[in-house]
Specification:
Uridine Diphospho-n-acetylenolpyruvylglucosamine Reductase, domain 3; about 20% strand; alpha+beta; 14 helices; elongated; Rossmann fold
């Protein structure tokens, strides 16, 4: 078999032009071997600047000694080290919370074009496949860990996925490397530890090539996931036609295009679209999509997901998150000048131009509000919104301009957002989907 150093060098060829290589160094066996391999390679070949990052979670007393160990190791290899201390948010899964804190710290410290190198290996890949299979993951989840993915301003790369743990252990012993042992790795209350210590040894005793074969299956599933993504991109291209309300900064899709697809293709397209927006729903939760899709035309259905909700309006799907999930507080202010006004949980409103003298106020709609339209008389706002096909979730958020308590303008709606001669107009910058940002 090809030696580990050669396989590592071949795996890193696509990233030789990176602005820097940063090793995620825990101090354990795997990351210690990776750092040693790279430091030796850097002595023979021209590589991007090499450094290491150690994340200290503070979850156990033994971990307090690990930063010193990592400093000693990096000093011996002449590799700069950055030690970062993070707080792990409490939650149902300590493993997940620690992982999220760790990768958030990595992402925050990666510069543009830099690569974070992590030491997951073939056995980790097999464990990940088995773990996700037991959780009922789909094709995307069963493709396990990709070789690379975006992270912060750079990339995360796993160059040891074609190496086994036994090979890394043999390398460490050959070069008399020292590493730390995490006591929590022996705690079989954690699912991954149970798989690693109880299940995988039993499988390997019967099928010695189990890890290799499972990693290969993960690679096949990765190719299948890529093909499904390409199909979803084609389906999305037809559904992502521009919305009528270009001023709404929300992801949206044309529903008729999706409805014409088969059920599996609908789910595949929506998974692809929702993936960067929210955690994927489980199989049973997809009934919410069917209810949303098949609701009566005059209904206002909502499909609630982990990080937001999907709404339907006028045969279009809209993704809402952040401030859009918070009901804006009622407000009524006297207009003074034309400075932008921040609206709690609802963006900003401003008046472009100069208003004539009068008792001008800004507020949201109220029951019985009407607007005087030239040649048409007074029109009830509800009927006017229906005529203009304004999405239902927007209507109570649209700022209104009143003169002597009578509505004279509605922000952003053509024909009714200001003076007929264009001397002044009411503009609204809606909130974004970002958490707490507008």
């Amino acid at each position: 078999m090809t030696p580990v150093p050669i396989r590592l060098r071949d795996a890193l060829q696509p990233w030789l032009g990176a602005s820097g290589w940063r090793v995620a160094l825990s101090g354990g066996l795997d990351s210690t071997v990776l750092l040693h391999l790279l430091a030796r390679l850097a002595q023979r070949e021209a590589l991007p600047p090499l450094s290491a990052i150690h994340i200290h979670h503070g979850l156990q007393a033994a971990a307090d000694a690990w930063p010193a160990h990592c400093r000693e190791l990096c000093a011996a290899l002449s590799v700069p080290l950055q030690v970062e201390y993070v707080q792990v948010a409490p939650g149902a899964s300590l493993e997940r919370a620690a992982r999220e804190a760790r990768y958030a710290a990595f992402a925050a410290r990666l510069g543009v074009g830099e690569v974070l190198l992590t030491a997951q290996h073939r056995d980790d890949q097999a464990e990940t496949l088995l773990f996700r299979l037991l959780r009922g993951a789909g094709v995307q989840g069963l493709s396990a860990m990709p070789v690379s993915r975006a992270l912060g301003a750079g990339q995360l790369v796993r160059p040891l996925l074609n190496c086994s743990r036994d090979e890394l252990l043999a390398y460490a012993r050959e070069h008399t490397l020292a590493w730390v042992e995490d006591p929590s790795n022996a705690d079989e209350r954690f699912s991954r530890n149970y798989l690693r210590r109880q299940v995988m040894p039993a499988l390997l005793s019967r099928w010695p090539q189990a890890s290799t074969n499972m990693a290969r299956s993960a690679a096949h599933l990765g190719e299948a996931a890529q093909l499904l993504d390409e199909l979803a991109q084609q389906d999305m291209a037809a559904a992502q036609v521009s919305a009528e309300f270009a001023w709404l900064p929300l992801p949206s899709l044309a529903l008729p295009t999706l409805r014409d697809l088969s059920e599996p293709r609908q789910r595949n397209a929506l998974r692809y679209w929702l993936r960067p927006l929210t955690a994927m729903p489980d199989s049973e939760h997809w009934a919410g999509w069917q209810a949303l899709r098949d609701a009566a035309p005059d209904a206002a259905p909502v499909w609630q997901l982990a990080a937001g909700e999907l709404r339907r309006s006028d045969e279009r799907l809209w993704w809402l998150a952040g401030d859009w999930l918070r009901k804006p507080a009622p407000f009524s202010v006297v207009v003074q000048g034309n400075q932008p006004l921040a609206l709690p949980a609802n963006g900003h409103v401003r008046i472009d131009g100069q208003l004539p003298a009068g008792n001008w106020q800004l507020s949201y709609r109220q029951g019985g509000d009407q607007l005087l339209l030239p040649g048409r008389g007074h029109r009830d706002l509800k009927r006017l919104f229906n005529e203009l096909r304004v999405p239902a979730f927007v209507r109570d958020r649209l700022p209104l301009l009143r003169l002597d308590n009578q509505v004279v303008a509605i922000a952003n709606l053509p024909g009714v957002q200001g003076a007929a001669d264009g001397r002044w107009q009411l503009h609204w910058q809606p909130p974004t989907n970002d958490q707490g940002l507008s």
